[in-house]
Amino acid sequence: MTATAALITKDPRRARRKVAFASAGTPYLFVAPAVLILMCLMGIPILLVIVYSFIERAVTNPDFTFVGLTNYTEALTDRKFHDALAHTVLFTAGSVLAHLVLGLFFALVLNSKFMPVGLRTSLRALFIVPWLFTIAATAVLWRLVLHPNGVLNSVLAAVGFDAQGIEWLSSHALALPTVIAVNIWAGYPLFMISLLAGLQSISPELYEAASIDRAGRVQQFFHVTLPQLKTTIVSLALLDAIWTSQQFPLIWLLTGGGPVNATEVAPTYIYKLAFSQYEFAEASAAAVVVLLISLLLAVLYVRSNAKAVKEG
């Protein structure tokens, strides 16, 4: 007789409790290494940033003088920080909205039954190309395209536009819209693929029922397609908002936050404040503010997913 069998025979209730505890704890043992790594790589740095935001001259001050909310007051009253937050909102809202519109449009095109299979496959491969590039490659590619003597100006001049010497990334008026456009190009394939999967999961019977009720294609789109994609759209929009609001490498490699802070967003502002001006305490306070905004978006994302699971 094994030890487990002997234990069950001797005390069945105690044995069942131990088995239930072991079964409940096994999943946590599997995720424990990942959680430990995340705590070391993310939890500790975040905790240090929060601590630095409450002390004077963080990192450079060995005395750790507590100053309360002084650093937060300085950060929140800094006009450059206000401008960076405003640019972050514009950059995020413009990118997410365009990602959604373009992604849905291309998903509808690729899901069309009237398109030949070969053409559909070719377009799918073509539309997904921007997603294959790394951020660094995307930035280098678009810097070449957007150069005053680059491809874009040459093409515009060839079709009759006066595009000689346009500074797409150096113009105060054009820099932010141009960076948004580049980010849109780089990010729409995620929406396209996700929404295409959502479209293909919609039951054809819903469209047949709508057709029987004499609903046109436009009515089917608004009363069948969009409601069925609602959960996917909300989740994608919130997730993309979190990612886009934290976008640093693309903007840094394209413009560095310039010209004259025209494309300065929260991540580039915090980076410059910390590593160019060595104001680590104020930079930590600004980073905590951005962290709270990101946590709010993360909570909305988790709640939307939980609601979708309950409804599903």
TrEMBL record:
Membrane topology, as annotated: Multi-pass membrane protein
InterPro entries found in the cross-reference section: ABC_transporter_permease, MetI-like, MetI-like_sf
Subcellular locations according to the entry: Cell membrane
Cited CDD domains: TM_PBP2
A family per Pfam: BPD_transp_1
Gene3D superfamilies per record: MetI-like
PROSITE patterns xrefs: ABC_TM1
First-listed, main subcellular location of the protein, grouped into a coarse class: membrane
Entry keyword annotation includes Membrane: yes
Domain ABC transmembrane type-1: start-end pairs: 85-301
Transmembrane feature ranges: 28-55, 84-110, 122-145, 174-199, 283-302
Family of this protein: Belongs to the binding-protein-dependent transport system permease family.
Protein name: Sugar ABC transporter permease
Organism: Microbacterium commune
